[in-house]
Design the sequence.
């Protein structure tokens, strides 16, 4: 039986939970997640947890923040003028907004603090700083040599 290794395309069902057991995401009831192992498409600990699994195998992995979305980076907190936020936005602590980097790339930010003339935004990933648990079920493995032979599909 095949074991998942770097370069293989895998399909996996997962349920992600906070350490308290609250589910933050799951593929159950949807199509399984499909990606190539070793390309860095997923968080490090998630990919590492799948390596060596066999089709049909189930596993639970616990990830530290470093293996998941990293520690909270204080340099990702930004202070902006209250006037920079469109007036029609009902600002509240904890809401997510979409901002743009200087290069024009969209980023999600969380409103952390609201002051009379300024707003503090957090651009860290919402799961940064959290220990996470994933329940995994490996559905399918396509070995790298077979994945390379698949025809390209165009829309």
Sequence:
């Amino acid at each position: 039986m095949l074991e998942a290794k770097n370069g293989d395309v895998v399909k996996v069902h997962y349920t992600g939970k906070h350490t308290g057991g609250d589910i933050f995401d799951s593929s159950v009831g949807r199509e399984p997640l499909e990606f190539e192992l070793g390309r860095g498409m997923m968080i490090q600990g998630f990919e590492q947890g799948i390596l060596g699994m066999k089709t049909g195998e189930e596993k639970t992995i616990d990830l530290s923040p470093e293996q998941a979305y990293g520690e909270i980076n204080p340099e990702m907190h930004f202070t902006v003028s209250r006037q920079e936020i469109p007036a029609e936005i009902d600002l509240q602590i904890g809401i997510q907004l979409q901002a743009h980097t200087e290069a024009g790339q969209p980023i999600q930010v969380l409103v952390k603090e609201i002051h009379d003339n300024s707003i503090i935004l957090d651009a860290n990933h919402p799961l940064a700083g959290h220990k996470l648990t994933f329940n995994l079920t490996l559905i399918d493995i396509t070995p790298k040599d077979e994945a390379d032979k698949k025809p390209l599909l165009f829309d």
